[in-house]
């Protein structure tokens, strides 16, 4: 299993802070109406739940590992570390099902690397309305995507993976 690079972890931490900044040590309802704790953790969050900062980091690590597994499972083209991290952030936020059904994934697997930033920018709504935080997050994911040292190359370069399908 491939780990999300530090730039990707930092991106998720920045956009998944609790209402007071940093990890949410007390569960809260996010703008989409979902119980959340730590750095955007939702799977086990519930009203009244409290955790420590260390537990928040552990949950984030597990959540990003799960998102990374989904990226590895669904993407059939080579990805450098920043691109892998950008997609893991997206999956962490939008969900594995949304990623699996997305035009973003279809276009990426067709080798349309340059289409991904624009496709990310289409995912800015929650409950039917555009959220400024999602607009900023997708722009940050697109910027991370564009940090790929091998941009424009279709073959795997150093630090990239290629696997037969």
UniProtKB/TrEMBL annotation:
- Give a GO molecular function annotation for the protein: lysozyme activity
- Which keywords label this protein? Antimicrobial, Bacteriolytic enzyme, Glycosidase, Host cytoplasm, Hydrolase
GO BP: any one term: defense response to bacterium
Q: Which reaction does it catalyse?
A: Hydrolysis of (1->4)-beta-linkages between N-acetylmuramic acid and N-acetyl-D-glucosamine residues in a peptidoglycan and between N-acetyl-D-glucosamine residues in chitodextrins
EC number, UniProt record: 3.2.1.17
InterPro entries recorded for this chain?
A: Bacteriophage_GH24, Endolysin_autolysin, Endolysin_T4_type, Glyco_hydro_24, Lysozyme-like_dom_sf, Lysozyme_dom_sf
Root EC class: hydrolase
**What's the family?**
Belongs to the glycosyl hydrolase 24 family.
Question: Record's PANTHER family?
Answer: LYSOZYME RRRD-RELATED, PTHR38107
- Identify the HAMAP family for this entry: ENDOLYSIN_T4
Q: What is this protein called?
A: Lysozyme
Q: Which organism is it from?
A: Phaeovibrio sulfidiphilus
Q: What is the lineage of its organism?
A: Bacteria, Pseudomonadati, Pseudomonadota, Alphaproteobacteria, Rhodospirillales
